[in-house]
From TrEMBL:
Record domain Metallo-beta-lactamase: where: 17-214
Species in which this protein is naturally found: Chitinophaga niabensis
Pfam family, one: Lactamase_B
CDD domains listed in its UniProt record: yflN-like_MBL-fold (cd07721)
Name this polypeptide is given: Glyoxylase, beta-lactamase superfamily II
PANTHER family in the cross-refs: METALLO-BETA-LACTAMASE DOMAIN-CONTAINING, METALLO-BETA-LACTAMASE DOMAIN-CONTAINING PROTEIN
Gene3D superfamilies with a match to the protein in the record: Ribonuclease Z/Hydroxyacylglutathione hydrolase-like
Length: 261
């Protein structure tokens, strides 16, 4: 396991198929905790930057899936850090069981194959943990220098992304998208319409760097990449469709490029 430095105080902790992230100031803040059994690797990562596991004070969970919340209980037991997450999935962590969606939505054949191979029959069991703080869209967390919470449902109902302003603004995009073979959709969604709306919402933020649960970090111009990929309305506007407004009720389209009228 090789820790990757993303900014002066943000580190990516690769944990096999999934990433966790560590933010360093006087205290340590961890975003996600890997699959069950990942705690030992995360504690090792903390020691490798010369910090003590006891410095870990805050664990932010982007969502309850076992590859993100699987190590939370053990890390809390070892460090007494507080666990923060959205209410919609808090019971999964409290009860130690994460259900799978009844009808998952896939955006491509490869994603469906990956789901069937690695997720469909995987256990939903995780060690149960106390959730200390319920957080929601628009919350400003006074930790790690200030973190803005963004509710981004679609992959799962209580998924949160985190925006960390700094010399470079960093977005922790969770599983809203993935960056495995380029920026693209996550392996599956519970509700794809909601997911697309969440991606458009993220694309309105101004971030230089985007970190993902799955795949590599985008280190430059990440918001522009999100806008190009996920913000369909922006693309339409850039094609300069023209409208003529006759009165408040009636709008007539007079010209659209690539189309004869
Ligand atoms: Zn997930
Ligand atoms: Zn995941």
């Amino acid at each position: 396991m090789k820790l990757k430095r993303i900014t002066a105080n943000v580190y990516e902790i690769p944990l096999g198929t999934v990433n966790a992230f560590l933010i360093e100031d006087e205290e340590l803040t961890l975003i996600d905790t890997g699959t069950p059994g990942s705690a030992v690797k995360i504690l090792h990562a903390i020691r490798s930057i010369g910090r003590d596991p006891g410095d870990l004070r805050h664990i932010l969970l982007t969502h309850s899936h076992p590859d993100h919340a699987g190590g939370a209980a053990e890390l809390k037991a070892q460090t007494n850090a507080k666990i923060y997450m959205h209410e919609a999935e808090a019971d999964h962590v409290r009860n130690g069981f994460v259900p799978k969606p009844d009808v998952p939505v896939f955006t491509g054949f490869i994603n469906k194959m990956m789901y069937n191979l690695f997720i469909k029959n995987a256990s939903g069991d995780i060690a149960a943990a106390t959730v200390d703080e319920l957080i929601d869209d628009g919350d400003w967390l006074h930790i790690a220098g200030g973190i803005h919470t963004i509710h981004v449902p679609g992959h799962s109902a209580g998924q949160l992304a985190f925006f960390l302003p700094g010399q470079k603004n960093v977005l922790f995009a969770a599983d809203t998208a993935a960056n495995i073979m380029g920026l693209g959709y996550a392996i599956f969604y519970e509700d794809f319409q909601l997911a697309k709306h969440s991606l458009e919402k993220l694309a309105t933020f101004d971030f230089d760097i985007a970190c993902f649960g799955h795949g590599g970090t985008i280190r430059h111009s990440a918001a522009a990449r999100f806008r190009n990929k996920f913000m369909k309305h922006a693309q339409k506007i850039s094609r300069q469709t023209q409208y003529i407004v006759l009165d408040e009720e009636s709008v007539i389209r007079i010209k659209e490029p690539e189309e004869r009228i």
